[in-house]
What does this fold into?
Amino acid sequence: MGILIKGVFTPDRKKATIYIEENIIQSINDEMYKDDFVIDGNRKLILPAFYNTHTHLSMSLFRGIVEDMWLKDWLEKVVWPMEKHINEEYVYWGAMLGGLELIRSGIAAIADMYFFMDKVSEALELLGLRGVLGTTIFEFPSPEAETPEDAFKIVENFAKKYKNRELIKPSIAPHSIYSCNIEILQQAKEIADRYGLLVQIHLSETKWEVYEVQKRYGKRPVELLESIGFLDKNVLAAHAVWLTKAEIRTLAKYDVKVSHNPVSNLKLASGGVMPYPEMKEYGVLVTLGTDGVASNNNFDMFEEMKVFAISQKNHRWDPTIAKAKEVFKVATENGAKALGFKAGRVEEGYLADLVLIDLNSPHLKPFYDPITLAVYSMRAGDVDGLIVNGKPLMLNREILVVNEDKLMEKAERKAFELYEKVMGVVK
Ligand SMILES: [Zn+2]
It folds into this structure.
């Protein structure tokens, strides 16, 4: 069945009629379409949907449990004790809650690092969202695997099972250099090469990490990864804040993709600001991610774009860097490219991953330039509809694929149940 979106504003502020068939934007302003299912685009803007390239979706159950702590305390006193109780069921309900928010935020796809990825896939496939899903590997036991070997087996089984899915791509996620020894990093890369997987890793997030890696190996993080043959075009490095110019050149040389997570970095007081101007200059593909909502605390990619733009400007004392158009591209087309999808543009032949924005709000008037509005004025609450892979998941602010109220209620109950196991009864 084809979908016809009539009389909608496009990102270049032209009125258009868009025809979607299968999962592709087939034609724009071509009168030859058959209008099977019509969406009224009046007073609406169509944008490419967001590609959120770094998150931990199931940690949505951890939103707001404890705040305003040092990362180390927060991990040791809250997150890790909670994760001792994490199982398939909690992962599923966390992914479900997070997935509902992704839809409401206009996000078509995520790159996710967590555990029990079968359950995350189940939730995403039910909701109709895309996921590049990497089981997290540690050198110590994880909630899912006693040993790294067990974790590798889980990754391989997942890679085989999900080889040919439309929405899900298997990935592998060695957590970081400080939590995986060299042997594990190399083994993870070998498995990635064998199965053609994207490798997700936290890289140079904090100054502490750089010192720790230097202390252990006498090298900075990127130098170490280069020396063990880890870097190539299938590596997606999250954060990438504390880097030297030489390290950025190395990332560019190996075509490593970077996921910038400005809100999480600011909230956890990572201290540095990702060196975006140098990444751009040397040709690193920069994408945008929210990180988990435990350190954000939402999946609002509009907010993420704005914070990205204004933190770069402020940090460099230069309002001309991180311009709205490039920031928008980072959050959409660049993300899609990094995750291996032809999406991120409202153009014929691109995947139909599209957001509809309700323009009828005071903060979106006057309507001059759609992209400037998207980066500096819009918020997730302006998302009126989402189409992913040619399927409408939400229209007129109503989620069509599941019963949202019921799922939210169940997910919240699960979150309180988990909280009770560690912190006591929720009052
Ligand atoms: Zn992360």
User: Anything to note?
Assistant: Residues 54, 56, 202, 238, 291 surround zinc ion (CB under 6 Å).
